[in-house]
């Protein structure tokens, strides 16, 4: 869904989905796993929610693609949390399940100038294979974290990804963020700071107790 959104000029809506996704993770953790928050964690969730509301207001309509990305990835995290399988084994099984679908799509359905690897330049094929490696590594990290962290905690720290993308866009690609983006990131950065402070405070209190 993300690749389709990027290729069909829905990048803004796709990026919005990554802002909504952590909140959906938090919601699923509360509903299906019985996870509960402390007061500072609730404050962090409220701040992050306000930041997402700014983007929803700016977008101006119901973001179907963004919601689809947010809920699909959140339920993926929930399933990985429920299934007691290590990251490497789980990734292998998922890849084997998707291999026939990918093969049918590549050799039988898609027809684009770059879909025939035998006719592509070697440099392009190498880049495509490298993209697979670059995609697999963060997925392995995500699935490993999903089995070790609370789903709500995992969801909250997923705001780090969009934040790093924001910093790359500004520092390396010269993009100028609008006021709405700055307000959104302001809310989210403060929320992350509150969440981290609460985690450190709780950890110290448990050590003393």
TrEMBL record:
Keywords: Cell membrane, Membrane, Transmembrane, Transmembrane helix, Transport. SUPFAM superfamilies: Multidrug resistance efflux transporter EmrE. Its main location: membrane. The keyword Transmembrane helix applies. Residues 2-54 form the EamA domain. InterPro entries: EamA_dom, EmrE-like, RarD. The chain crosses the membrane at residues 16-33, 40-57, 63-79, 91-109, 124-144, 156-176, 182-201. It is found in: Cell membrane. The keyword Transmembrane applies. It comes from the Bacteria. Pfam families: EamA. It is a multi-pass membrane protein. This is EamA domain-containing protein. Belongs to the EamA transporter family. GO terms for cellular component: plasma membrane.
